Amino acid sequence: MERKTERIETASAAETQALAARLAATMPDGTVLCLHGDLGAGKTCFVQGLAKALGVRRPVGSPTFTLINEYRGQRALAHIDLYRVRGAGDAFGLGLEDYLFRFGGVVAIEWAERVAELLPENCWHVRLEPGADEESRRVTVERPAAG
User: Fold this and answer.
1) Which of 18, 99, 111, 123 is the most exposed place for a label (fewest CB within 10 A)?
2) Which residues of 4-39 are buried (b: 16+ CB within 10 A; e: fewer)?
3) Is residue 138, in this structure, part of any structural domain at all?
4) 47 domain-assigned
5) Looking at residue 86, what is its pLDDT?
6) pTM
């Protein structure tokens, strides 16, 4: 599958959220967005911007302990955190396959690399890394060329 890669530097959490909002406008329903980065890299911050753009009004936090949070807005959002999942077997026990292949909105998965073998080929990948200072982030977005 042909892929398109974009690299962006954001200077603040607000800019990271604005980037997520810009990308949300181009994501069709059924998009699976895989978020990569160390603890504190800004993955949840990114999802907060995504949620706002999708019309979610509730506060969005990390689902580290609940594992999956669903939000309704103008479009649906499923926020999944696989940090505590050991692999594909654990993920299937959560019903992950329903989110990957049948969810009608956007699915954002933190720590998606833990179940890489289960992910659809047309996933979007967003890597967040520290930037030049504490607030900035280097963000790499890889998506299907047609998306």
Assistant:
1) 18
2) eeeeeebeebebbbebbbebbeebeeebbbbbbbee
3) no
4) yes
5) 77
6) 0.91
